Amino acid sequence: MARALPRGFFGKVEGMSATQDVQAVPESWAPALGPVLATPEARRLGGWLKAEEAAGKVIYPPRGTRLRALELTPLDQVRVVILGQDPYHGPGQAHGLSFSVQEGVKVPPSLVNIYKELATDCGVVAPGHGNLEHWARQGVLLLNNALTVEAGQAGSHQKRGWEAITDAAVAAVAAKAEPCVFMLWGSHAKKKALSVPGLMESHHLVLTAPHPSPLSAYQGFFGCGHFSRANAFLAEHGRGTIDW
Q: Residue 32: in which H helix or E strand, if any?
């Protein structure tokens, strides 16, 4: 089930009729995100996105995929949170999940390093693609800070209003009674998650490390052991494990 957002908030989805041009927030997330999406700030974001596209600017990911992280990982199924900054800004890369790219697209350097750490930590052989939907379907929330970006312009949609929406999603996970794991890579992710009052002292496991970018991976991301530590914590609390 899904709940309609304010009309035009995410723009018309290609192939949809004019009466269906409303993106929908998954039902499990509606109580947490609904109040934020009804604010003037959210409406301004929606209007700005429409104006940018009307001006001919290319925005990634494509309309209809911008809430993919929330669609694949309902709030009641979240077990792990991995935060990114903004979507990839190259053609065909972004599809609504942080760090993930569609199959057939070259695996980005940060994800290459994530796969390297996963191999060292858990012995998992990297697949021949960078699509992380199989993580998302197991309860790994792959959420970016901003959910859109202009083609070729990294960070171009930061501070446009997405932050209030994604902050609300992170806070909703932090409020869950079931223990979850927050895997925070880089100062940006750490700052976002730790802005949630009491998270560090909560029943959740909060893991921090440098970003997996080639610029910082050797400063502590490699060897962080987050994947095995997450599974050990989940198993200890009766929440199963992630098949990375």
A: helix 30-37
